[in-house]
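Encode chain A's predicted structure.
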Amino acid sequence: MFQPAAPGSGPATAMAAPSAPGVLRHSNGLREFLNGWDKTEGRRVLDLGCTSSANLNFFTELGHSIYSDDLLLESGDPRYLRKEETGPVFDPGMWLQANLDFEPERFDAVLLWDLVDYMPEALVKPLMARLTKILKPSGTILAYFHTRDAGAEAAFFRYHIHDKETLQLRPGAAYRLQRIFNNRHVENLFQGYRAVKFFLARDNLREVLASK
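Encoded structure for chain A:
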C-alpha cells in the first residue's frame, strides 16, 4: 500500500537514513528533475521505487508531499491473480486499483527509476497509461533505462537521493532484468508527452526526463 508523507510530518522527518553502504552516482537527470523544487512548496511527488527514508526526508524538508510504494514487490503478489481455465492470470486492473488508485492530475512529478525494465510485460502499458492520467499538466517523470551493455544479470539497485544531483545506489532484491528498451521504445512509452529528454551516462543506464 502507498505510504504518504506530508511536509514536516513527524514519522517522515524522524526516520534515520539507511546505514547500509552504497555507491554514489551523479545524475544530471535528477538535477534537472529537481530544478526549482527548493523555491516552492506544496508539490506532490510519487516515488515508485523501494521505500526510502532518505527520499522521504529530502522532499518533506523542502515542504513537499511524497507518496511511495514498492510497485515491483507488489507486482509479484499472488493476490492479484485471477483464475482462468488455462490457469492463474495476473490481473493488471486489480493491481492498478490497489496501488495507483488516485484521482486524475494529482501529482506534480513521478520518480519511476528503472522500474519499467523489471516489470512484468503485462503491466508496462497499463502502468504508463495510469501514470499519465494521474500526472498534472507540465508534470515530469524521471526514469532510468538499462542499455544493452547492462546484460540480463544486471544487479537491481535501490535509489536514495543523496543531494540534488547525486544518488546513493544500494543493492536490492534479486530481481531479473526483463527487457532492454532502445530510444524509440522509450519515446513510445511517453507518447503524447510535450518533451522527452535523454541524458547520457558513463555507466549502463540512460536517464530520461519526460515532461507532460
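The longest helix spans residues 121-134.
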